[in-house]
Design brief:
InterPro entries: I-spanin. The chain is mainly α. The chain has a domain of 70 residues. It has three helices and no strands. Helix 1 packs antiparallel against helix 3. The longest helix is centred in the first third of the chain and has 84 residues. The radius of gyration is 41 Å and the shape is rod-shaped. The model has no long low-confidence stretch (mean pLDDT 84).
Length: 150
């Protein structure tokens, strides 16, 4: 009976040692999984932070060029209004040839060169589109320098 009692205690000690080793292996496995998950979470957070910084930078860039474009359009609109009201005039490099020198002078000979109404509208449309294209190109170039090349 003594042998069985000592053997039983040894068996329990061996079983407890095995259970303790299994628990240690299980804990180590969970620790490794925790470290991997933590590393992944940190990487994801860094990515999110970088994306947020880039979004803020792009939003600021967009706001800057949108304001510049609005200011340019306001200047063009003011110029258009000034020309329409007669406050300003468009200056042209043009020469007018007389119809004929043998006829009598008429009011047409005294007219100064000027744009037709459609040519004037086309001038302001063209000027507006040039400003728009310039601002878009400048904005895209800055976007490429700040976002794509970094």
């Amino acid at each position: 009976m003594i042998w069985l009692a000592n053997n039983w205690r040894s068996l329990v000690a061996v079983l407890l040692s095995i259970c303790l080793c299994l628990f240690a292996l299980l804990a180590d496995s969970y620790r490794d999984k925790y470290k991997a998950a933590k590393s992944l979470a940190e990487t994801q957070q860094e990515t999110i932070n970088d994306m947020q910084r880039r979004q803020q930078s792009v939003a600021a860039l967009d706001a800057k060029y949108t304001k510049e474009l609005a200011d340019a359009q306001a200047t063009i609109d003011q110029l258009h209004d000034d020309v329409a009201s007669g406050k300003r005039r468009l200056q042209l490099n043009a020469t007018c040839t007389k119809q004929s020198t043998s006829g009598t002078a008429s009011m047409d000979d005294a007219a100064s060169p000027g744009l037709t109404d459609s040519a004037e509208r086309d001038y302001f449309t063209l000027r507006s589109r040039i400003e728009l294209a310039g601002k878009q190109i400048a904005g895209l170039q800055q976007y490429i320098r700040e976002q794509c090349l970094n």
